[in-house]
Amino acid sequence: MCYSAQIRQDYRKFVREIGARIDIDEFVRLYWERQQGSGAKIPRAMDAMFAQPQTADERRIADLIAGFDRDETVRLEQLLFKQRQRLADAERSLKGKPTKAATESARIARRKVAWAMGKLAQLRRRSLAADDARIFPGWHAPVLVGDNGQRVVRPMRYQCRPEGKPANYDRRYPGTYNARRDNLGRFWKPLFGRRHGILAVEVFFENVALHRVEQRELGPGEAERNVVLEFRPRPAQQMLVACLWSPWSGAGEPDLLSFAAITDEPPAEIAAAGHDRCVVPILSRNIDAWLNPDPRDLAAQQRILDERARPYYEHRMAA
User: Fold this and answer.
1) What totals of helices (H) and strands (E) does the chain contain, helices first?
2) Predicted local distance difference test score (pLDDT) of residue 1
């Protein structure tokens, strides 16, 4: 499973390079809904697409981002004040008669203070860091799709909720941020050959059992422990990860565009690192054929997945 990915930071440049247009209405809708309290999670690298607005719609998005950041700053400062007060109260109690409750309260307060300070620092930082481009299941990312033969970029959530499914589908099937290639003709049949997309990725991350990374069996009584590995293509390159996507609408719920990354059997170096899946980066010459599939010729789409980019994936423990 592709647990997390680092999308391309300079996405505006990517859009220009591939000759795509941005579906600005969808971006306006997403940012407006977030400002209204939808809870949409958006990486700061996607916000940066609108750091230098050129049109009225882009200025509206920039204003929505600024407003959201102001509201978040107030919320975090209030949380910080509350937790610092809680920590001070707990530390006073510990100086008198130490109790388990005061010890636990101090521990939680310190953790929440550190978290809030980190989030505030992120909001106030002007330049982008690598983590600002990282997405997780449930986060939104810019996805390249085909629309009447044109290349179009739309914001989509990384966890696919297929059209016609109930809103609780996300909870019932939490793993739908990835689409296994060996299941494209079954579970993903309504989308494969019909709604294809591409996610521009520079790095991806996987949860892997530590003993598998170390290529050994679990010791007697040893509990399995997971670690996060970062997989980076060598030579360094942008990966055009094959995806499936779907529009969704339902009564009382905001409209949703969402996607899943296709995964397949891993190359030898990923298998040796202890993981059993890998994203599928397609070749740039196959972009249009992938984005505009013929549902009557699924074999052609399978050939595109076979004829993938095959870099060497260097791995290390994620920070």
Assistant:
1) 10, 13
2) 55
